[in-house]
Amino acid sequence: MWASGDYASMVETFLLPLGPRLVEACGIGEGDRVLDAAAGTGNASLPAAERGASVTASDLTPELLDAGRRRAEAAGLDLEWVEADAENLPFEDEAFQVVMSAIGAMFAPHHQEVADELVRVCRPAGTIGLLSWTPEGMIGALFRTMGPFAPPPPPGAQPPPLWGSEEHLNELFGDRVTWRTLERDALEVTAFEQPRDYAEHFKARYGPTIAAQANARREGREEEFEEALNRFCDEWNLGTEERARFEMEYLLAVGERS
Ligand SMILES: C[S@@+](CC[C@H](N)C(=O)[O-])C[C@H]1O[C@@H](n2cnc3c(N)ncnc32)[C@H](O)[C@@H]1O
User: Fold this and answer.
1) Nearest CA to 111 among 144, 156, 150?
2) For residues 205 and 213, what is the distance between their CA atoms, to the nearest angstrom?
3) Which helix (H) or strand (E) holds 37?
């Protein structure tokens, strides 16, 4: 799903600030051994490497890792890129000082498996950092809008935006992580002139939207899908006639692994 469309260009268009935000909150520094799980094109991995950390970027989608590798080469940064499922990481126990994920691990279907793996590969007193879209924010609402059109999720899958709930994180991690930062913030998006330009962007580039649209088309409901997506963008627009503006809420959670 994530290889369809053009996720790399979404990052360049409006998601870039999220990686450095997470890296800063994790306090990553020179020589730290860092895992970025579900790293995509390295939006958090690259800023971590810029700070002198030794970074492993892992993701399920090789096409995105390839794009990340090219970004790193262009920036003169040296990282390790590993194809891996966040539910079953190919790393030793306690291998990393910092384990982080920016709007990444939240998209693996089985939340508890992912949380257990993130804890397992983080050393005691190490840092776990997560940046996740919230259920109440714009992407939470996007998933609710697309849900009735999307193909059936894998058995046992939970909705991605649950990772943006403080309560859900506490259920997943229990007393294995003591959160020192648990704050909500919003990414402002002003890259589009009209609200429906954002809908077009999602349809052309965002894997989950492309999958929902393709399924709606198979079911003869494509027009209904497009109307729902357009309405959604109109409703969430906070901008003016000349320029659309959106606020996309996320939860930043950083804690110490016990
Ligand atoms: C919204 S993108 C975020 C990518 C990146 N962290 C960023 O900040 O731009 C979600 C990523 O999760 C990855 N992903 C989804 N399910 C996964 C899984 N089970 N294991 C590893 N990566 C997964 C996708 O391949 C995609 O790169």
Assistant:
1) 156
2) 12
3) strand 33-37
Mean pLDDT of all residues in 94-117: 98
Query: Nearest C-alpha to atom 27 of ligand 1 is from which residue?
Result: 40
**Which CA distances in Å does 165 have to 41, 183, 184?**
25, 10, 10
The Cα–Cα gap between 85 and 37 comes to 9
| pLDDT tens by residue, 214-255 | 999 999 999 999 999 999 999 999 999 999 999 999 999 999
Q: How many residues appear in the chain?
A: 258
Sequence-distant (6+) residues with CB within 8 A of 57 are 36, 39, 42, 45, 65, 68, 79, 80, 81, 82
Q: For ligand 1, atom 4, which residue shows the shortest CA distance?
A: 40
CA distances from 104 to 61, 86, 230, 232, 258 (A): 11, 9, 25, 23, 23
Phi, psi of 128 (to 5 degrees): -115, 125
pLDDT on residue 101: 98
Cβ–ligand 1 contact at 140 (below 6 Å): no
Distance (angstroms) between ligand 1 centre and the Cα of 112 equals 16
pLDDT bucket at 86, cuts 50 / 70 / 90: very high
Contact assessment for residue 254 and residue 102, using Cβ atoms and an 8 Å cutoff: no
pTM of the model: 0.98
DSSP 9: H
